[in-house]
Amino acid sequence: KIDPVIWEGEESRIRSLQxxxxxxxxxxxMLSPDYALPxxxxxxxxxxxxxxxxxxxxxxxSSDNIPINHIxxxxxxxxxxxxxxxxxxxxxxxxxxxxxxxxxxxVIIENADKMYDASSNSLLKLLEEPPPDVYLIxxxxxxxAMIPTVxxxxxxxxxxDRDSTENPEILKRIFQEEAKDYQSLREYFLxxxxxxxEQLKVLARRFIDAVLSRSIKKVDGAxxxxxxxxxxxxxxxxxxxxxxxxxxxxxxxxxxxxxSLLKQGLINPFRMERWNRIVxxxxxxxxxxxxxxx
Length: 294
Hints:
Elements: H1 18-29, H2 40-60, H3 68-79, E1 105-109, H4 117-128, E2 134-138, H5 148-151, H6 167-173, H7 185-192, H8 197-211, H9 227-240, H10 243-263, H11 269-287
Parallel strand pairs: 1-2
Organism: marine sediment metagenome
Protein name: DNA polymerase III gamma subunit domain-containing protein
């Protein structure tokens, strides 16, 4: 997302981030196999610094869509080779394979389901005739939203949700986090986005209780909810959080709670289906058509 290759010709759009990007690259270079690693404590401090630095460009550059120019530049880079098997920046991109003029390259496309149609068509041409020793990894949580012609040219790998017994082990071994601090991987990533999972859960429950007050049984003896209060609370959160990140996570929480209520028999299935369509319609408006979250 911040690689100079895909911003070639548009450097002005990331000019304010370039000092941060340069520092990230410098620190990563010091952790390459060419250098001896520092002791464990120093290594941990360096990794924490790199993660902290990565937050700035991550928040500044949207990953909600993939412009066609990025696909075209990545495609050009994939076709570029040199006698030493290096990429466009002169750095070795992977172990040379198949003799001179060849190098292994990997391109990871995040949120592949959010590509514009023009971007998908451009990617399709690449998938039909990929360069040798190039690996494209497309990541998505909504496989059904990708166009069939692209999917037909990919080898799918599905990652199922982890259960409650696996979550603690993953948090400890991969993310070096104490499992007791988080109930799930989703909760961990919400905190990483600076969103409060418990706050989202409470707000989603209150919102659903308000909009379905005539068709839903009261849970835990809850009383009537003032819809105006909920909207005011949401406006306040919008002003302190990234609107898109907050609203996407809030909608996901709504869907999770809807399905929980359905399993418990606390909501009329027909009303549930109607509201499910409404919620997904707004999610799609932001996700696919880039509608303003406000």
